[in-house]
């Protein structure tokens, strides 16, 4: 089964299929597979319609913002080197292409004869050596800069092209996998004779190319600059070391701007040739690229080399210091979370901090494939992992009108704008940085078939399979707020926190458990995973992909629909063995309690799930602090009676040491209700019940409020229950126990928020 949801996937649900969306799919659906286009427009018509679109877009770009990004029917990328797609035998002319067909083993060579314009992809018109003309739609390439990667007069090769009917007598060659399109250097022997002009560029020198590159750079046409510098390097004499070094360094600078960090580092190093000042700059560029690749040790070495050549340069020194700080974070896991938090704004969501993962190791689990294990004894509340996102789009509003939603034609699923931004960002980052492919592509992609060639360099670029990347995205990404603290504030003020979607590759190896031993929180680009209890070295680390709902079968449906598994944790096994009759009775009684509560005031979670606001997207927001009205004692007593009956439906001894999730919300409600009545003994009773029902069963057995060894869940509701228990204990004159409860609440807060920020204010609130 394919995995078609994200960790914490609730965010997708508002985007159900609609008739309109279905109509759009059928409009672009294959109609005439294997045929030549029946009414193909003429060359003049194609060029004229393209020119009209370019003009309209230039005049009012806002009218042409495409709000949907379609993933077409899945097909594999080309993995055949251009030289094996032998031009003479395998060349296919535009005029021979048949519709809705992937022309396997074939290649189209062409020249771009129009300027590009952007809609969801980049559109140009191309002409082949026979003079055949067609539109070319290129998706998933660098499309966010003002600059464009393709320009009029470029020579291109389209490997194994797909020819598409767009409806309305509009046809195009469509390229989805970026590695299927090659932009050829002017001198490439692959360019068919007829496409080049006989005397083309004969008198051009390397110097001319370098100057053209400089001009393009100043005009911020970075792709053009890259092309010109590459031409200059090809044309320059190998003897002219100073010239070549200069151009390599310039090209390194452009590559850095385009976030092509592998190429930046190699160009910068290729430019080193014995000139102190220039070499220092080159080492600095190489260092900046290595730093961006999170290769801090390598970055440090480059910065040291730069500083040695120019000890007075303050940027070199500053970057060396930054590298040392990152290395210290990566080695020791010591972060200044307060400082990190203070730099976070809606515009600055990417923190300049390293990943700490020294305490975990990836290994093979008994049943769930790979998993993450504790590399040492870890204490309750300790940081287990602090990971910088591989890619995190700054798209925190699901309804951001300026962003496209992602529509996957293969499974009919629609994902919010942040998912579309994440997919595009992942594709770009991997295409631009071949060295990042191997680790990323090793992540779980469900059942998506792999060719084994993904990510390897063919024709100088890594093979990019956008459908594999999408499968990895949906299986491994997390929805994340800008700061977990804001989710808690929003939860209690009943507003909705903005979430983005991002991918943290190390955290992606954590498997799910309904009763986990870690919990995650978010601080900008960083995911903070902390131990919810003491964990011995070697134990598998788990967290909740989504907060488990109270009913076993509903829970399994979520896991199966989203990730294709049935959970085999002790809680799920116990509930499964109860059978549908007993589970049905529990659910019925839960619904009865809910209806009493809804009628008489307050409310239980509409989602029917224990609220875990840091993990869910607002589910359970109705529960906490929801008792705005004063509830009559008679109502409270009747809820108490029903709750007692519900507890009997969790048979002993099976559930003695397990959570009783149907009882969570009633006990939260009762705790709140008695607290509103200022009844400390009852508040304490139900605060302890909340803890017990979340699985902290030692509390029930009178073993005090030490949760360090408890196998129960830690979430904001347990923290809240601990806080209320502390208050009640103090009111009852049990000061020592009150201090213990508050200490536990504080540690729980650190787990839920990721650090101590906001604790004091919340405790007072
Ligand atoms: C984010 S990945 C976790 C790492 C994965 N086990 C691997 O080998 O790469 C999610 C996938 O792990 C597996 N998984 C995670 N938790 C599981 C559980 N409780 N029971 C069964 N499979 C689980 C499922 O195949 C799920 O799609």
TrEMBL record:
PROSITE patterns: SET, TPR. Residues 358-546 form the SET domain. It holds the Pfam family SET. Keywords: TPR repeat. Signal peptide: none annotated. Residues 15-26 have a biased composition (Basic and acidic residues). Residues 1-46 are annotated as: Disordered. The keyword Chaperone does not apply. TPR repeats lie at residues 280-313. This is SET domain-containing protein.
């Amino acid at each position: 089964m394919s995995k078609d949801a994200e960790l914490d996937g609730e965010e997708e649900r508002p985007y159900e299929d609609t008739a309109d969306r279905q109509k759009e799919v059928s409009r672009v659906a294959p109609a005439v597979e294997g045929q030549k286009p029946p009414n193909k427009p003429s060359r003049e018509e194609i060029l004229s319609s393209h020119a009209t679109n370019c003009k309209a877009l230039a005049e009012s770009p806002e009218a042409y913002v495409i709000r949907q990004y379609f993933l077409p029917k899945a097909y594999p990328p080309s993995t055949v080197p251009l030289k094996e797609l032998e031009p003479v035998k395998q060349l296919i002319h535009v005029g021979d292409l048949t519709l809705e067909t992937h022309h396997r083993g074939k290649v189209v060579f062409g020249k771009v004869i129009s300027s590009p314009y952007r809609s969801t992809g980049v559109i140009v018109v191309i002409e082949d050596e026979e003079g055949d003309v067609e539109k070319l739609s290129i998706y998933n390439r660098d499309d966010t800069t003002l600059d464009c990667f393709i320009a009029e007069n470029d020579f291109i090769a389209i490997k194994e092209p797909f020819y598409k009917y767009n409806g309305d007598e509009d046809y195009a060659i469509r390229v989805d996998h970026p590695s299927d399109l090659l932009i050829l250097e002017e001198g490439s022997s692959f360019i068919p004779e007829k496409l080049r002009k006989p005397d083309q560029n004969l008198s051009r020198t390397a110097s001319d190319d370098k100057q053209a590159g400089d001009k393009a750079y100043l005009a911020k046409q970075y792709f053009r600059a890259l092309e010109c510098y590459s031409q200059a390097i090809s044309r320059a004499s190998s003897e002219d070391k100073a010239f070549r070094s200069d151009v390599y360094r310039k090209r390194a600078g452009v590559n850095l701007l385009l976030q092509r960090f592998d190429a930046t580092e190699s160009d910068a190093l290729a430019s080193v040739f014995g000139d102190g000042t220039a070499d220092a700059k080159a080492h600095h560029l190489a260092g900046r690229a290595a730093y961006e690749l999170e290769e801090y040790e390598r970055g440090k070495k480059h910065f040291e080399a730069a500083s040695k050549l120019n000890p007075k340069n303050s940027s070199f020194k500053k970057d060396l210091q930054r590298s040392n700080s990152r290395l210290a974070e990566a080695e020791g896991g010591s972060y200044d979370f307060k400082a990190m938090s203070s730099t976070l704004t809606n515009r600055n969501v990417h923190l300049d901090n390293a990943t700490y993962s020294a305490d975990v190791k990836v290994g093979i689990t008994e049943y769930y494939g790979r998993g993450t294990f504790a590399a040492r004894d870890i204490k309750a509340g300790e940081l287990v992992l602090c990971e910088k996102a591989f890619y995190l789009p700054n798209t925190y509003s699901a309804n951001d009108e300026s962003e496209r939603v992602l529509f996957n034609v293969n499974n009919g699923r629609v994902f919010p704008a942040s998912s579309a931004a994440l997919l595009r960002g992942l594709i770009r980052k991997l295409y631009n940085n071949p060295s990042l492919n191997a680790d990323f592509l090793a992540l779980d992609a469900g059942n998506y078939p792999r060719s084994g060639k993904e990510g390897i360099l063919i024709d100088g670029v890594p093979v990019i399979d956008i459908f594999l990347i999408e499968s990895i995205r949906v299986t491994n990404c997390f929805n994340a707020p800008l700061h977990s603290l804001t989710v808690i504030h929003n939860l209690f003020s009943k507003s909705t926190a903005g979430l983005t979607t991002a991918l943290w590759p190390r955290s992606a190896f954590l498997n799910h458990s309904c009763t986990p031993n870690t919990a995650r929180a978010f601080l900008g680009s960083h995911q903070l995973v902390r131990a919810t209890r003491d964990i011995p070295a070697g134990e598998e680390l788990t967290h909740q992909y989504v907060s488990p709902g109270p009913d076993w079968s509903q829970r399994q449906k979520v896991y199966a629909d989203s990730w294709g598994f049935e959970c085999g944790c002790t809680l799920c096994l116990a509930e499964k063995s109860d059978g549908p009759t007993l589970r049905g009775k529990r659910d019925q009684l839960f619904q009865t309690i809910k209806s009493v509560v809804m009628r008489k005031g307050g409310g239980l979670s509409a989602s029917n799930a224990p609220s875990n606001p840091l993990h869910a997207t607002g589910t359970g927001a109705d529960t906490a602090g929801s008792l705005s009205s004063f509830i009559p004692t008679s109502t409270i007593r009747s809820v108490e009676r029903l709750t007692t009956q519900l507890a009997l439906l969790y048979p002993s001894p099976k559930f003695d040491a397990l959570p009783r999730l149907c009882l969570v919300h009633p006990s939260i409600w009762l705790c709140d209700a008695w607290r509103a009545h200022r009844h400390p003994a009852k508040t304490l009773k139900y605060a302890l019940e909340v803890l017990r029902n979340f699985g902290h069963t030692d509390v029930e057995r009178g073993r005090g409020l030490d949760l360090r060894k408890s196998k129960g869940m830690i979430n904001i509701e347990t923290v809240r229950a601990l806080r209320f228990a502390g208050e009640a204990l103090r009111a009852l004159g049990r000061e020592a126990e009150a201090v213990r409860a508050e200490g536990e609440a504080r540690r729980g807060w650190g787990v839920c928020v990721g650090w101590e920020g906001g604790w004091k204010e919340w405790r007072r609130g």
